[in-house]
Amino acid sequence: MNNPVHPHATTGNAANAATAPLSFIDVVRARHCCRGFLRQPVPDAVIEEVLKDAQCAPSNCNTQPWATHIVSGAKVGELSQALFKAAGEGRYSPDFSFDQAAFSGRYAERIAEQGKAYYGALCVARDDEQSRIAAVALNYSFFDAPHVALLFMPSIGDNVRVAGDIGMYGQNFLLSLVARGLGGVPQTSLGFFAGTIREALGVPDDMKLLFGISFGYPDLKAAGNSFAMPHDPIAMNVTFHR
Ligand SMILES: Cc1cc2nc3c(=O)[nH]c(=O)nc-3n(C[C@H](O)[C@H](O)[C@H](O)COP(=O)(O)O)c2cc1C
Fold first, then answer.
1. What does pTM read for this prediction?
2. Which of 6, 42, 196, 233 could anchor a disulfide with 86, C-beta 3.0 to 4.6 Å?
């Protein structure tokens, strides 16, 4: 199949980022999560442009409530070690819950389809508990990405409006990556270790971690990039009133 992660990358390296710019429609329709990266770091100047694109996101009353921490270089390995240690000891410290069991109907079906596609791509059998745990743990090594953005936010009211703003910011970030020949994956699984990440990065307790985005140049040969989740037809989600 054509690699789903990046529409004009053929080898997944920095040279591809220099090819003709993609249209917005190409970018938005071709974006898929990238779960396998080359070790090659992204130049600081490119990361800065991605951050400027993300910064253009709309927010409630223009509050711009995101606080982004970019981890690169040796710090990536250090953070990964801290996450593996916390996960091994069962030290979860989420700021926000996410309970897959709370979803039902078509939502639950989509969760199952996503799991099947992911574990299938990694050749992990349904009943192979150890391999499943290892597949989830790829999140803690950022799927080999050379960079990870941690999206923190202040805790205000019931947090729903602020979290919505962070989502807007995150999508700008992800689309900007794709437009620049890069790939990224948002990760709630990093949010399950908010306390560990705060401690490792020296982030104050009053800043809450919604999710992270691992990013870099896609490794087009990685098993994690060999599938693309389908998105339902718009009729499943849209009601027209005319
Ligand atoms: C806020 C958020 C958190 C996510 N957390 C994870 C995660 O922890 N690990 C992961 O592999 N994918 C994660 N995903 C990626 C979703 O599984 C993915 O977006 C979905 O399956 C649709 O696939 P696509 O983005 O490739 O179109 C997350 C996505 C979002 C928006």
1. 0.94
2. 196
